[in-house]
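SAMPLE LOG
Freezer: B-3
Tube label: C17
Construct: single chain, 117 aa
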Amino acid sequence: QVQLQESGPGLVKPSQMLSLTCTVSGGSMTTSRSTWSWIRQSPGKGLEWVGVIDYDGSTDYSPSLKSRTSISRDTSKNQFFLQLSSVTPEDTAVYYCNGRPGTGDYWGQGTQVTVSS
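STRUCTURE (predicted):
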């Protein structure tokens, strides 16, 4: 059973960088054709796809967030990371990590990130 767990600060000040970690267990991030994503949900809004890192390390980002987003990974720790720069209160959301290793669609429980001074 693949499990994902988000971690990171719950409060970030405006203009600073948001950094989150997703730790994957029960599966490998390098499994062929697997994808590992970040998705968020702002208050009163639907789910918003932030970006993805594939099994081979290639990345893709939401066009609306691309200029501020970086997703990377540490395969030795089976972790992947989200960095979102120059945050504003509009980046306040519950951030989820998602994994699709070919055996299903797996989600972390989500972590609340609030952008506020």
